[in-house]
Amino acid sequence: MKFFENVAKKVFNKEGIKILEGHVAYSPEEAVAICSEMGVPVVLKAQVLTGGRGKAGGVKFADNPGEALKVADEILGMEIKGEKVKHLLIEEKADIQQEYFLSISIDRSERRPLIMVSKEGGVEIENLAKTNPEKIIKYYPQPLIDFLPYEAREIARKMEVPSELIGPMGDVIWKLYNVFDKYDCEIAEINPLVLTPDGLIAADAKLEVENDALYRHQDLVNMLHYKKKAVDFVKLDGDIAVIGNGAGLTLTAMDMIKLNGGEPATFLDIGGGASEHVINQALNIVLNYDPVKVVFLNVLGGITKADDVARGVINALKQADREVHIVIRLTGTNEEEGQKLLEEAGIPYEISMENAAKKAVDLCNELKAKE
Ligand code: GDP
Ligand code: MN
Known about the structure:
The protein is of the alpha+beta class and 371 residues long. It folds into three domains: 21-93, ATP-grasp fold, A domain (Dna Ligase, domain 1, 2-Layer Sandwich), CATH 3.30.1490.20; 95-229, D-amino Acid Aminotransferase, Chain A, domain 1 (2-Layer Sandwich); 232-370, Succinyl-CoA synthetase domains (Rossmann fold). It is built from 13 helices and 18 strands. The chain has helices at 5-14, 28-38, 53-56, 65-76, 125-131, 149-158, 163-182, 218-222, 247-259, 276-287, 306-319, 335-344, 353-370; strands at residues 2-3, 22-25, 42-46, 59-62, 79-80, 83-84, 88-92, 98-107, 112-118, 137-139, 185-196, 199-202, 206-209, 232-235, 240-244, 264-269, 294-301, 326-332. The strands form four sheets. Strands 1, 8, 9, 10, 11, 12 and 13 form a seven-stranded antiparallel sheet that branches. The longest helix has 20 residues, at 163-182. It starts with a strand and ends with a helix. The protein binds guanosine-5'-diphosphate and manganese (II) ion. Residues 43, 45, 51-54, 59, 91, 93-94, 96, 99, 122-123, 191-192, 203-204 line the site of guanosine-5'-diphosphate.
């Protein structure tokens, strides 16, 4: 069974191989939220089980959340070698000085594992294998005895890496072999393993586990159960972003906007019990949606706590890189604390939904009159 890069990387990392900070996104909006939170620049990578994504346009970079939205939208609609892209891995962009190739597989004719490495890794590895096979170093470890760190260093030396890298490179090769052995792999591969100012990092990861051994690795299979989406987001035609907790309340807020002559730009339900983090994420999504002129945040705290909402709002506004016009209605659980936090941060709020909706529409009309 083949595993996606994001799962493979977690497994490699568990065995001590360095990876970059990364998060999975299922929609362009989620990609924006992740980028805003991580800071940029980032790399966005199609999660498919085939290789060659880079050449097929499935690996792209973004320098700001707006770019991330565009790029994520492009990649999520793609098909790579017949496989539809359903999710992305978003990582901080590595500052690459050199790309190496490390691969461990089963050589069936030799009936034992085969380690292959090269100091010329990256997307051209298949061509290199054809044109310059001598640049790929092969080593057959003894399957019945332990693969030892000195053997791994010997491989690194044959790779002709700079002398100060022989130790660290040997260490990664040894750890990758441990992954291969421990997880009953058919393939464990890092292409490229990249040299950065922070050392050697796995920038890609391939992991294939022998099907008959899967029952021993339920932990891997469990990692395939993806998390549920945190927010429900629908784009509409207007210019007032409506965010609420709970579908009913959000729909009511939209009706109130309409009643006052406004047009909603979004329906965004943050759900019950939304954390500070989710609020921050929701605001980042709408703030990166261009048609939005005014944000109407309508929260009636129940399981959702007003003070968490206030903290999420304050953080999101601090990080925003554009002027934000927001009208907040905040009441319910912990309202005193939440309202106090907003006051201290100099952010006005309303108690009544009717007043807040009217204020949002008026504000939007004012802004449009100025344009
Ligand atoms: P593959 O084409 O499916 O093997 O996808 P990879 O994950 O190997 O990415 C392809 C290529 O994109 C790599 O060989 C790198 O040259 C480049 N790449 C991937 N991640 C990064 C990154 O974080 N920073 C930079 N600068 N390049 C990257
Ligand atoms: Mn690769």
